[in-house]
User: What shape does this take?
Amino acid sequence: MSSNKLKVLQVNKLYSPHIGGVEKVVQDIAEGLKDRVDMKVLVCSIKGKAAVDCINGVEVIRAGSLGIYNSMPLSLSFFSKLRELSADRDILHFHMPFPLGDAAYFLSGFKGKVIVWWHSDIVRQKLLIKLYKPLMNKFLQRADRIIVATEGHINGSAYLRPYRDKCVIIPFGVDINSFNRSVSAENQPVIKQPRKILFIGRLVYYKGVDVLLDAFSKVHGARLDIVGEGPLRHQLENRASELGISEKVRFLSFQSDDNIKSLLNDCDIFVLPSVANSEAFGIVQIEAMACSKPVINTALPTGVPYVSIHGQTGLTVPPGDANALAAAMQMLIDNDSVRIQMGLKARERAINHFSLDKMLDSIYKLYADVIG
Assistant: This one.
């Protein structure tokens, strides 16, 4: 390997095959930049012994773990792994919030450059943030740069505003060309009855799927696919039954990438009904937009409404408002030309603002800038 390559270690909780938005970003960066930088990744095992893997040409080191508690791996060996792996690195690139990573950094003795990608505030774990906040602030003060995906990540954060001057906006990106069943104004899709509405995500409180079901019970002329797993699945299936909409709602487990692309291309409307700031962006919005689908999202004080723009590429409604969500769905169900034109603009926005190549080029430039 060429000795003049920048040496980067990405640090995160977990990595593929674990499914998650942050893990996907870490993997995209690692695989997308591995030919331009000497890239390694340090994470934890979900539970069990340490391991070293080579995944698509990237060396992934997993510290042993006792398991995941309150969304955090318990790993003592992570401290020694970070000290060992950081010894020859030019840049440590952390994905936060990650208390274990912050603590391990301060015991590592690392003197090089530190970049943080801030993905979301800690919202629900009140005790954790009370204990973690002093360490987190110390780490954010130490960071040379803090990456956020949108201006909303700064404005809506309870923690980032004091560090605004070191924040750099780099929007998340996806491989737009892999969602290539595109639609042109001349080649409009066949209008199908009933319309297909799609949600993809974990079935957890902040996704607002309960609100989506309440809203869907008020609309007509549509079917709903809910794709994902999580602790609320049984409760949500019961709610659909109580609302009398079980015959129009299909619950699907997590799907392969190819199946996800097929579902996105086949739907008419994508809905991200999130209700809490734990939803900081919603990369799946970009994937739907890449497939020329209008997105209905919520006006959270995070990056969510910065992705799909109200009145242009979809509709934005107040979080937790089932009536407003129902009205937005019904409007797009009933107005074919509006829905199709918003979908075309959505794909155009995805290409112009959220391509994977743009994200990777921006990160590489940032690496070069901090090294100087």
Q: What stands out?
A: The chain has two domains: 7-173+355-371, 176-353.
